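Below is how a single chain appears once it has passed through the pipeline. First comes the sequence as given, then the structure the pipeline wrote out for it. We keep one example in the README because the format questions we get most often are answered faster by looking than by reading.
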Amino acid sequence: MIKYRRLIWVMMAAGSLTLAATRGYAQQPDVGDQPGLLPDDSVQLDPEYQKQMVYYRSTEAPGTIIISTAERHLYLIQGSGRALRYGIGVGRDGFQWQGLLNISKKAEWPDWTPPPEMIARQPYLPRFMAGGPGNPLGARALYLGATVYRIHGTNRPDTIGTAVSSGCFRLVNVDVTDLYDRVPVGTKVIVKQKPEL
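Resulting structure:
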């Protein structure tokens, strides 16, 4: 009888550990969202993702933003075949999208309220976080239409050039501040998934 009880106890303990491990794995922090982490300013971006003026053919008016998720670049059209190019982080698999929107709102050191669908996927996230250096939205946010998506800064500069977000586009804080100062509310934003031919 004692052996039988001990066997049941061992089986229950093993089952609990398996369940705990499964839940723990399902709730692993998303590498792109680390609330409270202060940015590492020593991170050096690959030259490919550093802000630079480039040749860029487009029929869009100067001031238009074109985002190429495949290239991990955001272009601010300057006219005369040129654009300011910024390196960005984009949505991970299953969270990439394309479309035409306008910047509906701008915010400096924005507060962060993760949407309910994000909380459902990542229940460890805070329900609200005040703006500041440790906020995943970084130094500035440009809100895209009436969607939950934004162009924003980051407290994870090492994620620029990668696909880790839930659909937003992130820039290092110095770059998003530069972009923020250059574009007004109402700016046209074109999001493309496929690279230009």
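The longest helix spans residues 2-26.

See the next section for the split statistics.
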